[in-house]
Amino acid sequence: MASASLLIPSPSPLSRRLASPHRLALLPLRLPQSPRLRSPRPLAVAAASSSSPSPLQALIFDCDGVILESEHLHRQAYNDAFEHFAVRCPPSSSQPLYWGSEFYDELQNRIGGGKPKMRWYFGENGWPSSSIFETPPASDSDREKLVDVLQASEINIFACFLDWKTERYKEIIRSGSVEPRPGVLQLMDDAKGAGIKVAVCSAATKSSVILSLENLLGLERFQGLDCFLAGDDVKAKKPDPLIYITALKKLGLQARNCLVIEDSVIGLQATNGAGMSCIITYTSSTANQDFSDAIATYPDLSNVRLEDLKSLLQSALVASG
């Protein structure tokens, strides 16, 4: 697991905004009413002849936000966990902690992973009271001791929260009410049919990702993946590129021959850090992010063909020299 110093941003104006979901809720929504398709950004050099062999040898999908639009499901599971464990932050609050949708959009687009999210939030707002720890630590030294215990103990407050939250998320997935995003299954099938490797790299908990993929892709597609990595498989979460660097080793390919499909700037940064090209299929919570480093941006994959992706990657490689 990555250290908190790598994953938790220093206090900043945005940090102060995120620190109070109640304050943030008063801000006007900035998301567009209907995200527009943005064409692939122009490239300086034209693509090579269509007769040239395609460099695309692997298509790598993120899970949350790409295969399924899941952030609202994670938020629901967090809030259910906060209520179940009577988490109150501050402890004097009469109601359990609740993360609103606008607040959570900014939080999840800023900080990857469940533990880092809660470490950061409690660090900014004070450690909570709960049915697990009735009295939160009051002094800096006691808080530091608690952090040490939480990181070293096999049973800790984060594990209790995340285990319960993960199980709640699984219940939602099992309900059958969640479907894959448009175009995902067709693109996977087309890639496999063309002899192109297909992989999934997600920062989420492995057990929840497996359940999502088994339910949404079907067992045959899931078991046919050439590579599958989750947050449990690497020590650093996105935007650290480690998960994609690890995927390259498992696939036995060079970065130039892989194309990643992500939905957020955090994922885009991880992809670029691994030296791979990336297209974005954004969601309502990520539509306003800066995707200028992606080779193309789409609202979903419903009108994206495999040949389109081959051409995009070829053009990007030619343009980069």
UniProtKB/TrEMBL annotation:
Hydrolase keyword on record: yes
Species, as recorded: Musa troglodytarum
Alphabetized GO MF terms: hydrolase activity
Protein name from the UniProt record: Haloacid dehalogenase-like hydrolase
InterPro entries per the UniProt record, alphabetical: CbbY-like (IPR044999), HAD-like_sf (IPR036412), HAD-SF_hydro_IA (IPR006439), HAD_sf (IPR023214), PGP-like_dom2 (IPR023198)
TM region(s), chain numbering: none
Family matches, as SUPFAM superfamilies: HAD-like (SSF56784)
NCBIfam families assigned to the protein according to its UniProt record, in alphabetical order: HAD-SF-IA-v3
A Pfam family the protein falls into: Hydrolase
Alphabetic keyword roster: Hydrolase
